[in-house]
Every structure is written in structure tokens, then in C-alpha cells.
Amino acid sequence: MNPGSCGAGVSTRVSNQNPACKLQMETRLCKVRPSTILSFIAITCGTTCRPIRLVHHGCFSTQAYQLQYCGQCSDSRCCTPHQTSTAQVTFRCPTGRLLQRAVMMIHSCVCHNNCPYELFCKIPILHRKNRKSC
User: What are phi and psi of 95, to 5 degrees?
Assistant: First the structure.
């Protein structure tokens, strides 16, 4: 997934953090930013939102999660995840079937000039009074 993208996606990495210390491909669901530009520009870098149930292919998480998003920096720099962890989330589908998926949880974001996706660096800066929480 492009770290600068919006909406839900899949993050992939190679890691040796396993009992055998072997390189393995890991994938996890992620949502770095809200899925609409209007929501994105209203959220500051590192905004924590109220608890919500996550949705994956029409299935809802069995628990509510308080997500943190990487939105907009107070200047023209880009905001991307800095510290993350992976949570095993259980989803209940309309048929009653339970799915378990790895989901990226953002703990902190960082503002920097190395913008992975230039669109977000070109969005006009909103004044603090116009920003909303999610």
C-alpha cells in the first residue's frame, strides 16, 4: 500500500520477527487516512478518533477500536505513520462467520518533507479554527 493513500488498504512487509527468525512476508489491513479528501483536510496529523467498529468486506469487528489517523500537518509537510503495531481483529460477517485479520494500529505520526504521495502536500492548509475532530 502506498503510505500516502486514503481509505482502507493492505500493508505488506518482510520481517524476521518470528520464533524461527526466518524472513517472512507479513500483510495487514490498514487505514492511514480517512477515505475522503474533505475528511482528510479536517484531521490534523496524529488525530485520535472516537471508538468505531472496523469493516472488512461487509463484516464488522466484534469490538470497537479507537483509531489514530495521520491527517494534515500544520504546515506544508506530509504526515505519515511513525510508530505502529499489529492487532489481531475478529470480524463477524452477516452470515455469522467469524474472520480474524491482522490490522495496523497507528500509535504516532510524523510530519516530514519526504512526501510519499504528493497530493497530500498540495492540499491548502486549514486554519486551526476550521479543523474538526472525527
Answer: -75, -5
- Residue 15 is inside which H or E element, if any? strand 8-15
CATH code (residue 90): 2.10.90
- Burial letters 86-117, b for 16+ CB under 10 A, else e: bbebebeeeeeeeeebebbbbeebebeeebee
73 in any annotated domain: yes
The verdict on pTM exceeding 0.85 is no
Q: How far apart are the first and last CA of the chain?
A: 23
Tally of structural domains, the chain:
1
Give me the tens of pLDDT residue by residue for the chain, a chain 134 residues long: 344 444 567 777 788 888 999 998 888 887 766 654 444 445 677 788 788 899 999 999 999 999 888 877 888 788 888 898 989 999 999 999 999 999 989 899 899 887 765 444 344 444 344 444 55
